[in-house]
Amino acid sequence: MTSSYSSLDDSNDSNKRTSCVKLLAIVACLTILGVLLAIIVLERPPPPKNHEILPGDDGWSNFSIDQCSMALVESIPEHMKYKDNVTFGIPLEQVWNNLISVATNEVDVVSFYWTLTGEDISVNSSSDMPGRNILKELEELPSRNVTVRVITSVPTVRTNSTDLEILKQKGVHVRKVDFGRLANGVLHSKFWIVDRKHVFIGSANMDWRALTQVKELGVVIYNCSSLAKDLRKIFQSYWVMGQPNSSLPQPWPAKYNTDINKQHPLLVKENNISSQLYVAASPPSFCPPSRTQDLEAILSIIYGAQHYVDVSVMEYFPTTRFDKPRSRYWPVIEDAIKTAAFERKVHIRMLISCGRDSDPDMLPFLQSLASLDSPQQHISIQIKLYIVPVANQSDIPFSRVNHNKYMVTDKVAYIGTSNWSGDYFLTTAGVGLVVSQHASQPEMKNTTLYSQLKAVFNRDWHSEFAVLLDDLGHHPDCSLSR
């Protein structure tokens, strides 16, 4: 009996010693884990000082090690003269040439249509030389072992263009997306991706007139692989849909998902400037749930503005434009504009293009919106028409027009590819870049993309080419005045 108890006591002592060892091991492991977690938390870079949070951001963005360099890009039509000491973007021709020259592996280009020579539209003009040069440089890329892929739309603009056939003969891969069949719209996006790290997004199609005869605006971003790879997912969605007999997947496969969106913008830093940015897209049928839709981005920017909203677009209609058999009323963006002006007393300025080919049906909508301007009630909605002088270029069709599509508020800059009417956000493919920036040093403030865009809007708003609706009268270069 004694021995039995003795044996039992020895076993208990052994178990106790084993338990102590296990406990000490667990405590040691927890201590080490705690130290590691502390190091991780302490080493995690904090949000920049005065970090500006976009609507829906939780304060922590997707951090990038890319040294993204952003610059505004413009094309000013020939024979247009501004006053001295005004802001201009980098010339579009220079940017396209540079993107081609730096390419070492691959170039992806999306454009609604291609017309890089005057013969494409039966016009003989020396102003098509920049377009011809771009076409020649693109032709030569495959001989440099650079893979070139091009996507365009079906339906597209009717031209005599042979650009794509020439490019295919030189080894360029071309696909046409039948957006009419897939989404009852067109592929209206315009962007470049070079070597999966350089990006151009803007209003310019692959058209010689975009370089010399049409006022364009965009953004070029260098050494930004995180954003380029994200934009490439949109390109890939077009590329797959450009195959014969393609059909829209429901839902989109996971490889098209993104972790860069309105809720989680990409945060990059360059020269003491912190930028948050993301790419939005349309139409909804081409967007996985994780992709911020273009309309959602625009509305959130307007609703987030506290002081002012400045808009420059070619066309503005609170309707659909291409619905058959008739268009529908679509006041989604207009309601956001009115709400901002009425409820938050946000100052609204809209610069709408008017050329010889502009739709006169736009005027009543603009007049209706402008009529709400009421200084007595502190409601400020001002609308001007931007008119590019035709001068001696009257023989060039669908030119001499302001093709810009952008917005700048007191918080955010937006550069897109879509006009502002219902179809562009419901059935038409487009992309938009949303940028919020903060300069840690006051002297750097005027170097940001945001400040450049703001300066360009003010330049155009106060120029001789911008006319208030009430002052329009008869203008030979503006169809809305006839």
Features:
Endonuclease, Chain A, globular, PLDc_3, 482 residues, transmembrane, Diverse_PLD-related, disordered N terminus
Describe this structure in words.
There is one protein chain. This protein has 482 residues and is an alpha/beta fold. It has a single domain (62-481), classed as Endonuclease Chain A (Endonuclease, Chain A, 2-Layer Sandwich), CATH 3.30.870.10. 31% of the residues lie in helices and 22% in strands. The protein has helices spanning 2-43, 92-102, 129-140, 163-169, 179-183, 208-212, 225-241, 294-304, 332-343, 362-370, 423-426, 449-461; strands at residues 62-63, 69-75, 90-91, 106-110, 114-115, 147-154, 173-178, 191-194, 198-202, 206-207, 216-222, 266-270, 273-282, 308-313, 347-353, 381-386, 405-409, 413-416, 430-439, 466-468. The protein has a 10-stranded mixed β-sheet with strand order 1-12-13-19-18-17-14-15-16-20, sandwiched between helices. It has an 8-stranded mixed β-sheet with strand order 3-2-11-9-8-4-6-7, with helices on both faces. Strand 12 and strand 13 form a beta hairpin. The protein is globular and about 65 Å long. The N and C termini lie far apart (118 Å). Keywords: Membrane, Transmembrane, Transmembrane helix. The chain crosses the membrane at residues 21-42. This is PLD phosphodiesterase domain-containing protein.
Number of strands: 20
In CATH, the homologous superfamily goes by the name Endonuclease Chain A
Q: Pick out the low-confidence regions.
A: 1-23, 35-61
| Overall morphology | globular
Number of domain modules: 1
| Helix amount | 25-40%
Radius of gyration: 28 Å
Cα-to-Cα separation, first versus last residue: 118 Å
* Amount of beta strand: 15-25%
CATH-defined fold name: Endonuclease, Chain A
Organism: Oreochromis aureus (Israeli tilapia)
Family: Belongs to the phospholipase D family.
InterPro entries: Diverse_PLD-related, PLDc_3, PLipase_D/transphosphatidylase
Domain PLD phosphodiesterase: 183-210, 398-424
